[in-house]
Amino acid sequence: AGSSHVHGVAIPTIDGIHNVLDHIGAQKNGEQKQVLWINLREEP
């Protein structure tokens, strides 16, 4: 989609996930935005 932004991370900690969500503005002024988070890691 033309308005989608793509960001990538390795294996984030919980704090790292919170930081990413803050950085992309997942919640501003008490209003939550929709985020699609896809994990492609395959467990051994």
TrEMBL record:
* Classification via Gene3D superfamilies: Protein tyrosine phosphatase superfamily
Under InterPro entries, the record lists:
Prot-tyrosine_phosphatase-like
Q: What is the recorded name of this protein?
A: Uncharacterized protein
